[in-house]
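can u pls check wat happens w/ pyridoxal-5'-phosphate
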Amino acid sequence: MCKNNNKEEILALSRKIMPGGVNSPVRAFQSVEVAPVIVESAHGPYIKDITGKEYIDYVCSYGPLIFGHAPQFLIEEIQAAAESGTTYGFTTPHEVELAELVIESYPSCEMIRMVNSGTEATMSAIRVARGYTGRNKILKFEGCYHGHSDSLLVKSGSGLLTQGVPTSPGLVPALVEQTLVCPYNDEEALAEMIRANQDEIACVILEPIAGNMGVLAPHEGYLEAVRKLCTENGIVLIFDEVITGFRVDYHSAAGVFNIDPDMVCFGKIIGGGLPVGAYGGKLEIMKMVSPVGPVYQGGTLSGNPLAMRAGIATLKRLKSNPVIYKTLEENATYLNRGITEAIQKYHIPAVTSQFKGMFCLFFTDRPVSSYDDVMKCDTELYKKFFEGMMNEGILLAPSQFEAWFPSTAHTKEVLDQTIAAVNQVFAKL
Ligand SMILES: *Cc1c(COP(=O)(O)O)cnc(C)c1O
């Protein structure tokens, strides 16, 4: 047992008894070759590690923390919830209330099921889409991440019209072959793939704004084209809004682009920082789900009262304060402007990418509009930048391909400090 807060000791023990010392690979900081941060506590925009060093945090748990760490109203809500019991295995009014809040905000989501993670949400949505259409194949896009379920842990093979290939051992080839992969932001490739697999594709799943290959917005008309192709071919269109849901707008990406998917997946923000996920969609499709329909899906801790109450408190606050979305966008824009100026000043081969409150810095000198463009980024340069920023007290995701998530707790002062640090680090790159 580690009796103290000795970082070396904890690291050594963690690596001995947990794969890579972590419960999610990115936390091992492998791609940046820096010792990982071990957190003691966090508040607002700050994370403090066990050595006592404090950082301004832009990871914000990869998206859930729209108000920053440990906001008072959520602490109180979660404490109050815990006092009434932490899980029951029976229905609570809170589950119904959160379901209603989500549904009210999302016109094409008429019925919803709560689960415990984004992975579970996408995995279940795909099962439902397959059950509903009676088709086996699914289609995803390169660079979009939907969690780690077998069908989705797939990248494209070489050449355009190939079956998916597994990105991990342990996947059954016969299952993975049912996953087709297309380039994001390319409607012609999608049309061709659909033609080549006529009447075989159950669903198309995508991040309406890609947030797992940095931040990559759909080009003008792309989502409309995807919607049209799905409608014409009887394919269930699933928006994975695990990141974008309640982040880009209270009505999520579907609201921003005014497009109705047939199904939607949520996670991250809707749990207010507690483990949660949800999938929903049109009534006809969701009626396939057990016990109303034949598609089985369940969960011991699903609809957990702590997560539900944190989610309700979060969504209510967002709903009654639309100015929050203006603030989030202003914060990202402010950061974008400051960093763009620094890029020009120090002639850094980098470009910024922003969609409303989502931001990212790509180390490439070319504009980024596809997965291939993203893959041309200089990850060695990112590594240096990341380490430099850490030394300046700014914590970014330990990977070039993650978004930055400035929260409402990232004040102008905090953003100015960040921009000053970027200048410092760029000067030495
Ligand atoms: C994070 C994420 C997931 C997976 O959610 P987990 O809670 O990590 O399982 C799925 N889809 C997208 C778009 C995500 O960003």
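The CA atoms of residues 15 and 21 lie 4 Å apart.
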